[in-house]
Design brief:
The complex is a heterotrimer of chains A (257), B (305) and C (327). With 257 residues, chain A is an alpha/beta fold. Chain A has a single domain, classed as P-loop containing nucleotide triphosphate hydrolases (Rossmann fold), CATH 3.40.50.300. Chain A has a 6-stranded mixed β-sheet, sandwiched between helices. Chain A has a 4-stranded antiparallel β-sheet with strand order 2-1-4-5, with helices on one face. In chain A, a hairpin with a 2-residue loop joins strand 9 and strand 10. In chain A, helix 3 runs parallel beside helix 5. The longest helix of chain A is centred in the middle third of the chain and has 14 residues. Chain A is globular. Helix content of chain C is 70%, strand content 4%. Chain C has a two-stranded antiparallel ribbon with strand order 1-4. In chain C, helix 1 packs antiparallel against helix 6. Chain C has one domain. In chain C, a hairpin with a 2-residue loop joins strand 2 and strand 3. The chains are: A alpha/beta (257), B mainly alpha (305), C mainly alpha (327). Chains A and C meet through helix 2, helix 3 and helix 4 of A and helix 6, helix 7, helix 8 and helix 9 of C.
């Protein structure tokens, strides 16, 4: 399913703002993500990418602007409600449940959006459907052999993969991936790219990433955030050759590469 | 007449506030820089008071007794830090609570074993009388001494923290510990010294308040809570916050306790007023803290970024 | 590949120890009487009552990771509600229970709703503040003892059919308290591996992540806080029946500290941690009180040793677990 300019977008962000005292972190941002696409968000350090993700995820309240998701105005919704509605977010610094095994982490992610969680009597382990789904995810992530492992027994790449897996467990409609390849070497990055390639068949993705090459390989559209403002948005090719973008961001990168 | 009463109680509030500041300053540094919850801080206050009472009786001189007590408590504090508390920095807050709670028990009983349940301590004879500050306002000379010492120490601490290299390190550590470590400072030694200073300040407060509040086992517990309230209001890691917070808390507590029932008497029957007054005053401090936190969740002058 | 589902519960193995302990607990009064040690029954009852209080705190502190320094407030509140009712002539046990639960649950709801909006040390301070407020309030109610506390003559009465259970009878008190403890521990044992229990343990590990996954963390924390508060209140009600007396000190922050010590000592986030901690601390104090006047001194050293050398508490030592975990 490919989005077209005339179809209603899955995520429609308009005029989003966030200030910290005198500092404007998010400056009247407009952003649209269509169903089925991978939309990448790039920008130099300090551009405000993580602030924007936090506003979309619900961890940070916005000062102004609206966020409309699948037709609903979710601007004032608490995080957990957004997650249950299909907007899931991964974190730049891995956040996993350290006292749970790998499979249990995934089971918790599945549990969060299925059924009633106020059941304080029946053992969760008896819930076959829960664990089957967790098992499925485990295999997709390539961690099948490490189901019972503790989190600190995983490599960095495996932990980042699990991080994405947790976010994906709820079968979201839109996945906010905050720098999934952070701190990865070449092999691990390639695996993560492949994983994103699998994941995108089931949901739309808003990908925040520093690895510009990977972004241009994966993304259908790219938006560039500089100083809290979107300075360009379009296909990878168009953005790559946009003089404003080159000046503000890509130029420095190309020079350094 | 009422004006004199208000003035007198305001001075009392300021004086109590300054002593609270001495406790809060050490506490906020330890919590801010070392990220350690030290419940035994009030016990250092108690140890200082007992040592002062003992030394004053031994030497017959108030000055010698207090100075000696401060020195001994500082040494004791540093030994405690180097020997035991140091191992707690890396542990979680819960373990720190348990360990320092255990310390309270040990020190309470330890002091009782050595000195008994309480010791007498009175203000030096030279300062026993009142001073006429204004026509009609007599104020105890001893309390003026406390005010003087409090102000002097506040200034000294400010100079130390703002103007010395050690102070700069402490401030850096309070706002960002990893950075301070990366800058290559001898962290363990710095921590020991900071702790020693905190202990010394506790001892000053304990020794000076002794004649007013009675030197007895367990005197640390109640003032400790007020000190924690002060640093939460003032902002953890901030000396300035500790000073402002302490004076505010001292004022609310003292004025509340003494003046509130007079005000309430206008509206309520006397026995209700005299019961409600102190109760409301005690609660007022906590209500104030809750209000401050509601408006400024990190306290008035947060040191941490 | 090993099966993912947990090893079969091994029903017989897992239940053997608790059943033995229960059998001993039930037989205890008679064993004590046989040895002429009747006067230790009140110590046993005190252990049971504090085990209930410590278990209620373990729910909040251990499982939910909420360092509440004001838990004694609920314990004291329950004690005062019951004591005040008794001193006003109301003796019905069920009424005491209902009132205790209602008042402490409401207090926990209000305190929790406000405090749970804060985090870290600020949460600790706010819960402490509320407890201190209640402490000073108790100090100032002259009609019910004020700072001297309240003595009661009568106790709670429960009628079971034709029988009247008067908690003035030490045996009756012991068994009623034991029944409450058993119910609480069974509920906790079922809670930990349940969906709700796992969600709570997850939000203890990382509540931002839990919230991002879709768990309404604030709501869950509040539920746990209220349940724990109510259970703490029940323990307080039992305690006033045991001692015949309640004083504002029951609400003092040092009492909260003692409960925390019991939980940490016994084992955070373990089913029997509250019981183990209460038993060890109270027995330790009892033993020391008979041998030396300075039992606080030695208790302190034992606690210090536990912190430094037995990080997972006593239950942790016993089961050799790395950390309280979901798996």
């Amino acid at each position: 399913m490919t989005g077209t300019a005339t179809a209603a977008p899955l995520l429609d962000v308009r005029g989003l703002e966030k200030r910290f005292g005198g500092l404007v972190a998010t400056d009247r941002v407009d952003l649209r993500v269509d169903g089925g696409e991978i939309h990448a968000l790039i920008g130099p350090n300090g551009a405000g990418k993580t602030t924007l993700v936090a506003q979309l995820g619900g961890q940070l309240a916005s000062d102004r602007g609206t966020i409309v998701f699948a037709g609903d105005d979710i601007t004032a919704w608490p995080t957990h409600r957004r997650a249950r509605h299909g907007l899931a977010r991964s974190f730049q610094t891995t956040r996993l449940f350290r006292s749970a095994s790998v499979i249990d982490n995934l089971a918790l992610a599945v549990q969060a959006v299925t059924g009633s969680n106020l059941d304080a009597w029946r053992p969760a382990r008896r819930d076959r459907a829960l664990f089957e789904r967790a098992r499925e995810l485990l295999d997709t992530l390539g961690l099948g052999a490490k189901a019972a492992h503790a989190i600190d027994q995983l490599s960095h790449g495996e932990r980042r993969a699990l991080e994405v897996g947790m976010t994906f467990a709820s079968r979201p409609r839109l996945l906010l991936l905050d720098e999934p390849m952070a701190g990865m070497g070449r092999d691990e990055s390639a695996r993560m790219e492949a994983l994103i390639g699998v994941v995108r068949t089931q949901c739309a993705v808003l990908l925040i990433e520093h690895d510009v090459d990977a972004v241009f390989r994966l993304a259908d559209r790219v938006s560039v955030l500089v100083g809290g403002r979107v300075v360009a948005s379009g296909t990878p090719g168009a953005v790559r050759s946009d003089p404003a973008v080159i000046a503000a961001y890509l130029g420095d990168d190309a020079g350094a590469a | 007449m009422a004006g004199v009463l208000v003035l007198e109680q305001s001075l009392n509030g300021l004086q109590f506030g300054l002593m609270l500041f001495l406790l809060a300053a050490g506490l906020t540094l330890v919590f801010g820089v070392m990220d350690m919850i030290n419940l035994a801080h009030g016990s250092l206050y108690m140890v200082g008071a007992f040592l002062a009472a003992w030394l004053v009786a031994l030497t017959g001189s108030f000055l010698l007794g207090v100075v000696g007590a401060v020195a001994l408590t500082a040494v004791f504090g540093m030994a405690l830090e180097a020997g035991l508390l140091r191992t707690l920095y890396a542990r979680d807050h819960l373990s720190q609570v348990l360990a320092t709670f255990a310390l309270i028990l040990i020190l309470n009983d330890g002091v009782k074993m050595i000195f008994g349940n309480d010791l007498p301590l009175s203000a030096p004879a030279a300062l026993a009388g009142p001073v006429e500050l204004l026509p009609g306002l007599q104020y105890p000379a001893y309390r003026l001494l406390i005010l003087g010492v409090g102000v002097a120490l506040a200034v000294l601490l400010w100079l130390l923290v703002q103007k010395t290299r050690m102070g700069a390190l402490v401030r850096a550590g309070a706002s960002n510990r990893e950075m301070a470590t990366a800058m290559g400072t001898d962290i363990p030694r710095l921590f020991t010294i900071v702790f020693g200073i905190g202990a010394a300040l506790c001892a000053v407060a304990g020794a000076l308040l002794g004649p007013l509040l009675a030197v007895q086992v367990g005197m640390g517990e109640n003032i400790l809570i007020l000190a924690f309230v002060v640093i939460v209001i003032g902002g953890i890691g901030s000396i300035r916050g500790a000073l402002v917070g302490a004076i505010l808390v001292g004022a609310i507590d003292t004025l509340g306790r003494t003046l509130l029932q007079h005000v309430l008497r206008e509206f309520l029957p006397p026995q209700w007023a005299s019961a409600a007054g102190p109760a409301i005053a005690s609660i007022a401090v906590y209500v104030f803290m809750a209000i401050v936190l509601a408006i400024k969740p990190q306290g008035l002058f947060p040191a941490r970024t | 590949m090993a099966p993912i589902e947990a090893k079969p519960l091994g029903l017989r193995g897992a239940l053997l120890l608790p059943l033995c302990a229960l059998a001993i607990a039930i037989a205890l009064p008679f064993v004590l009487r046989a040895f002429g040690l009747d006067f230790y029954l009140s110590l046993a009852s005190r252990i049971v009552v504090y085990a209930i209080a410590a278990t209620s705190l373990n729910l909040v502190l251990g499982y939910a990771g909420l360092v509440s320094f004001g838990h004694a407030a609920f314990f004291g509140l329950g004690a005062y509600v019951t004591a005040i009712m008794i001193s006003e002539g109301v003796q019905s046990g069920p009424l005491h229970l209902a009132a205790t639960i209602a008042v402490t649950a409401l207090a926990a709801l209000v305190i929790g709703a406000i405090s749970l909006r804060t985090r870290g040390v600020y949460f600790i301070m706010i819960t402490l503040a509320f407890a201190q407020m209640l402490f000073y309030l108790a100090n100032s109610v002259k009609g019910y003892g004020g700072d001297e506390g309240l003595n009661i003559r009568a106790r709670s009465l429960f009628s079971l059919g034709p029988y009247l259970l008067d908690l003035k009878n030490p045996l009756a008190l012991y068994y009623v308290a034991l029944a409450v403890l058993v119910i609480a521990l069974v509920a906790l044992a079922r809670f930990a591996p349940s969906r709700f229990g796992r969600a709570v343990l997850a939000l203890r590990d990382d509540d931002v992540r839990a919230e991002a996954l879709g768990f309404p963390t604030y709501r869950y924390k509040l539920v746990v806080f209220v349940v724990a508060g109510a259970l703490g209140g029940i323990a307080g009600a039992l305690s006033v029946n045991l001692q015949g007396y309640v004083s504002p000190n029951a609400l003092h922050w040092t009492q909260s500290g003692t409960l925390m010590v019991m939980v940490i000592l016994g084992g955070v986030a373990t089913v029997s941690g509250g019981l183990a901690g209460a038993a060890v601390l109270l027995l330790l104090q009892e033993v020391l009180a008979t041998t030396t006047e300075h039992h606080e001194f030695w208790t302190g050293w034992v606690l210090l040793a536990v912190v430094l050398f037995a990080r997972q508490g006593i239950v942790g030592l016993w089961t050799r677990r790395r950390a309280p975990s979901l798996s």
